[in-house]
Design the sequence.
């Protein structure tokens, strides 16, 4: 668990500082799984199985763990409909929606520049030449 | 090493697809260390020791490894001055500078919303109440 520095309100938030809460938050929201989950949740609540289908390759364990972490910093809200069989949906909070804009900008940049990044990558080129 | 799908030029880049190169690239550039290195490199070339000082808490091993990964997808350029003692500098490429805008937007969002995210975080609140 993250330990909050005592002088929290007196310092300028700074992701470069090891003990700044901003660094802790960066480590929570960065990483492909967090970014893909936040990116996937837009306009529509999604269920566990829907997220699994959209985010190809994520394991159930990683999905559950990352959703819990995003819930902890209240970027994602969990709705348990209290039904039998269970029906649980996930939704971005207002903060989550605001962050999603930044994450989407990065994801779409990667997609738009993919061919150029790959063209420049000697290790990927090597694989391509071999096929 | 990433294995390039054969139908690479025929499909729409998509970070949600497990075998899309965009997913591979996302996993390379997401993560706090990549993001902090790209964020730190702006306008000015930086040496290894300077990066270590700016990015508090990064280990030499992680810095070296992440710089090499960013070099591989040509977001970062390494300049070896071929001097004795050795003098090596790192610089963002044009693609790296373009990506940096997106990464900075995310880092600055986290800093700007830090207090709200912390206020909402019960696990951090708990720690604060205890001190």
Sequence:
């Amino acid at each position: 668990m993250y330990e909050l520095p005592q002088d929290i309100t007196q310092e300028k938030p700074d992701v470069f500082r090891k003990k700044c809460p901003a660094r802790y938050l960066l480590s929570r929201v960065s990483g492909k799984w967090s970014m893909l989950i936040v990116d996937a949740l837009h306009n529509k609540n999604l269920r566990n199985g829907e997220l699994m289908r959209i985010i190809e390759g994520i394991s159930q364990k990683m999905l559950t763990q990352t959703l819990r972490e995003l819930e902890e910093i209240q970027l994602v809200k969990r709705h348990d409909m209290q039904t039998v069989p269970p029906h649980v949906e996930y939704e971005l909070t207002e903060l989550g929606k605001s962050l999603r804009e930044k994450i989407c900008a990065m994801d779409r940049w990667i997609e738009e520049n993919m061919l150029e990044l790959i063209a420049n990558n000697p290790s990927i080129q090597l694989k391509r030449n071999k096929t």
